[in-house]
Design goal:
By secondary structure, the protein is an alpha/beta fold. It has a single domain, classed as Rossmann fold, CATH 3.40.50.720. About 45% of the residues lie in helices and about 15% in strands. It contains 7 helices and 7 strands; from the N terminus they run βαβαβαβαβαβααβ. Strands 3-2-1-4-5-6-7 form a 7-stranded parallel beta sheet, with helices on both faces. Strand 1, helix 1 and strand 2 form a beta-alpha-beta unit. Helix 1 crosses helix 7, helix 3 runs parallel beside helix 4 and helix 4 runs parallel beside helix 5. It is globular, with a radius of gyration of 17 Å. NADP nicotinamide-adenine-dinucleotide phosphate binds next to helix 1, strand 2, helix 4 and helix 6.
């Protein structure tokens, strides 16, 4: 079980892997701070889990909103022990030359700039305390490629590089890792695979395996490119 009052920040907790991880960490006794854009999903999490936790509707591409939320977390709960940079989008499948500038921008903005916004505001208090782990969600498509998902591949390969470089910058006691979560039946997978996504396990099963694995990451893992069990 999670030791003491572990503080876990999870972006993209309204559905999919982020929501399942939030529920699993709460069940293990952690205090969770979570965000996503959907106000109704955030309100539902906040009313169900009460004020030991912090849930906020925000867009991770809004650097000011991320800064305010990180301030609130650090003031009310303390610097996170674990950060799951999970929020991401995938482009509508198309050859790269047919991807609109708007669709390309959205994927870059959420998957790379959103992750960096969180790191920019949450890491300084973690460094000041001298401990904590940042998990940046990558993908199989951060280590291999397929046609029609070049924008998404570009961001997830970018997450691998960003995380490896960040790991070289961190002081002792902290860690940054990239995580390939595997293939899980979520809204994102259904947008790529359609009904055949149903052949894969669901997010709750995933969290049952992945959360105990994430819960024990520590400074010795700094710089690793991990795959969830
Ligand atoms: N499912 C898989 O098989 C798979 C495989 C490899 C990697 N991954 C990675 O695992 C992570 C989770 O994927 P998933 O399958 O759970 O995706 P999902 O079902 O589409 O959920 C994505 C989450 O991110 C949030 N989000 C999206 N844009 C956001 C923004 N601008 N600001 C704040 N929150 C935002 C969404 O909430 P709102 O819409 O409410 O904002 C939602 O909670 C992603 O990083 C994904 O790339 C998944």
């Amino acid at each position: 079980m999670t030791k003491g009052e572990k503080i876990v920040l999870i972006t993209g907790c309204s559905r999919g892997l982020g929501k399942a991880a939030a529920e699993a960490f709460i069940a293990r006794g952690a205090r969770v701070a979570g965000c996503a854009r959907s106000e109704s999903a955030i309100d539902e999490l906040a009313s169900r889990h009460g004020n030991r936790h912090r849930f906020r509707a925000l867009d991770v591409t809004d650097d000011g909103a991320v800064a305010d939320f990180c301030d609130e977390i650090v003031t009310d709960l303390g610097p996170p022990d674990l950060v799951l940079n999970n929020a991401a989008l995938i482009n509508p499948g198309a050859p790269l030359w047919e991807v609109s500038a708007e669709d390309f921008d959205r994927v870059i903005d959420v998957n790379l700039k959103g992750v960096t916004n969180v790191i920019r505001h949450v890491l300084p208090p973690m460094i000041e305390r001298g401990s904590g782990v940042i998990v940046n969600f990558s993908s199989g498509w951060g280590r291999s490629t397929s046609p029609e998902v070049a924008p998404y591949c570009c961001t997830k390969w970018g997450i691998e590089g960003l995380t490896a470089a960040l790991a070289q910058e961190l002081p002792p006691g902290l860690a940054a890792v990239a995580l390939n979560p595997g293939i899980i039946d979520t809204d994102m997978l259904r947008s790529c695979f359609g009904e055949s996504a149903g052949a894969y396990g669901d997010a709750t099963d995933w969290a049952g395996r992945a959360v105990p694995f994430l819960d024990v990451l520590g400074p010795e893992d700094n710089g690793r490119a991990l795959s969830a069990p």
